[in-house]
């Protein structure tokens, strides 16, 4: 994982991309999306809307994402999503979020 500088006010590195595994009890694909986008934005998941201005439900249905991934167990699945400023990739085991290019 590479990193870049967040902005002129902060000297903490912001990850170029964030990978979050899903499938464990308690971590659904939709939860992994929230955590990955928040990590890529450099904020806590509960602060994603307030700090980064991203409300994921405004862009896609997270419950539908969980159902879609769950309906294909043991198969190859590759879903691409985008929200302002970020590209998201969901596969059978993980989510990767990275800044849009």
UniProtKB/TrEMBL annotation:
Residues 1-30 are annotated as: Disordered. It holds the Pfam family HalOD1. Residues 27-93 form the Halobacterial output domain. InterPro entries: HalOD1 (IPR040624). Residues 9-25 have a biased composition (Basic and acidic residues). This is Halobacterial output domain-containing protein. It comes from Halorubrum saccharovorum DSM 1137. The lineage of its organism: Archaea, Methanobacteriati, Methanobacteriota, Stenosarchaea group, Halobacteria.
